[in-house]
Amino acid sequence: MADLLQRAWYRKTHPLGLLLAPLGWLVCALVWLRRRAYAHGLLQEERAPVPVLVVGNISVGGTGKTPLVIWLVDYLHRQGWQPGIVIRGYGGKARHWPQQVRHDSDPATVGDEAVLLARRTGCPVAAGPDRLAAARALVAYRQCDIVVSDDGLQHYRLARDVEFAVIDGTRRVGNGRCLPAGPLREPPGRLGEVDMVVAYGQPARGEFAMTYRPEPIRRIRDDNITRAPPPHRGVRVHGVAGIGDPGRFFHMLSHLGFRVVPHAFPDHHAFVPGDLRFAPELPVIMTEKDAVKCRHFAGDDMWYLPVTAEPSPLLAKRLSLLMEDLRRG
């Protein structure tokens, strides 16, 4: 069913997309009305104690938000800010929210992306469905003077100072319809309201380009790349990806010279040891987000590929101007 929906969402004339179009129009209308209610004060947004930057998208599936968040907090650090991150904690089963997240937190409790962000950035991270409560808890318990909200574009109750929308430069907005007829959470016109649209891949006019730089692969169990040599170009490997667009990861591995046997899993999949038992026995390379869930049972020949976002220098220039405005109040 998921594959059928993907085909319908990214083909404008697919019969299923046309059949579901009235539902998509209804969702778009409801989302637009909710947006207008916040804009005109009928629904009340609330401010966190510090400025808030939101990174999100208007479509479901992976578009590259998390690598951009990692780049963004590094940029803020270099500009003298003390950033913290709030995130939904999707997939986490904590009984109480928000949760303060550390690099060694259990992904089953707080979510895989929250642990990944804590490990990669070293920043304070708070996870919880209520982004406003998470931001307030973060500022109360940690020394943060600015908050970055990962995937919070539609969480309008949390007032924001800067909005980033990330899109896939290839798939764009699909058939342009809202769920369930298409992949959109909001109408395409929402992109015209954000401060910056960042396109992974080919940007359109007025958008900022972003690419990924692959880092050296690392062993899942101990992050040690010197204890034994990692797989090298030309080697056949099992590629594992439980993300919104697994094909993008497999293509990256192939581009690096690996001969990939692909294994796609649902986004945020809760891995168990049996999921990674493949025949024939070959090195396993997975995404960094998946690796945080496999550290306690990964074998010696299981690796992950970190990636670093590289936005256009023009984005940094635009962001610098916006941050100067924030400093001036």
Q: Could you characterize the architecture of this molecule?
A:
It is globular, with a radius of gyration of 20 Å. By secondary structure, the chain is α/β, with parallel strands linked by helices. 31% of the residues lie in helices and 20% in strands. The protein has nine helices and 14 strands.
Give the second-level CATH assignment, the architecture of the largest domain: 3-Layer(aba) Sandwich
Are there runs of 5+ residues with pLDDT below 50, and where?
A: none
What count of helical segments does DSSP give? 9
Largest sheet: 9 strands, mixed
Counted up, domains total 2
- Counting DSSP E segments of at least 2 residues, the number of strands comes to 14
Instruction: Write down the CATH topology of the largest domain.
Output: Rossmann fold
CATH superfamily of the largest domain: P-loop containing nucleotide triphosphate hydrolases
Fraction of residues in H or I helices: 25-40%
Secondary-structure element series: HHEHEEHHEHEEEEEEHEEHEEH
Beta-strand residue percentage? 15-25%
Order of strands across the biggest sheet? Answer: 3-4-2-5-1-6-7-8-14
**Which structural class matches the secondary elements?**
alpha/beta
Cα(first) to Cα(last) distance is 49 Å
At the first level of CATH, what is the class of the largest domain? Alpha Beta
- Rounded to an integer in angstroms, the radius of gyration calculated over CA atoms is 20 Å
Overall pLDDT confidence: 92
Shape: globular
